[in-house]
Amino acid sequence: MSDYPAPETLHHTSRAVVETSRPQRYVKQMVSHMGRKIPIEQIPGGHRLTFNRDNVFRGYADLLVDDAQDDAARLLLLAYGTDAQNLTAVERALGNHLERFGEREGLKVNFS
């Protein structure tokens, strides 16, 4: 993965905070599902997905568990894109998958 730019060099970024009582479960499910198609690495506090399909690098997504606030855990999604269009593609992939996995819990993903 060293052939890709560092996430902090990508200027198109967004984040979403998803309230859930089971953030670890959703991270595990996302990693398991998406890891079949794209590279995933463990990072401090979670996992990084590298969006590189068909040899086209689009960006990254970090899936982090934030359990430091008010004893309630949350899922923090950070998206990084090489441009606005690729950022939107990363956001859409994350949001659609997570909302589908968390449908019973009524999970909603809104990037800003």
Describe it for me?
Residues 1-22 are annotated as: Disordered. This protein has 112 residues and is α+β, with helices and mostly antiparallel strands. It has a single domain (7-101), classed as 2-Layer Sandwich (TATA-Binding Protein), CATH 3.30.310. It has two helices and five strands; from the N terminus they run βαββββα. The chain has helices at residues 23-34, 84-101, and strands at 12-19, 40-43, 46-53, 56-69, 72-81. It has a five-stranded antiparallel beta sheet, covered by helices on one side. It is globular and about 35 Å long. The two termini are 27 Å apart. The mean pLDDT is 92.
- Whole-number mean pLDDT: 92
Question: Rg from C-alpha positions?
Answer: 13 Å
What is the strand content?
35-45%
Tertiary shape: globular
Q: Give the CATH level 1 class.
A: Alpha Beta
Distance between the termini: 27 Å
Give the low-confidence spans.
none
Structural class call reads alpha+beta
This entry's quaternary arrangement is single chain
Instruction: Give the CATH topology.
Output: TATA-Binding Protein
Explain briefly what this protein structure is.
By secondary structure, this protein is α+β, with helices and mostly antiparallel strands. It contains 2 helices and 5 strands; from the N terminus they run E-H-E-E-E-E-H.
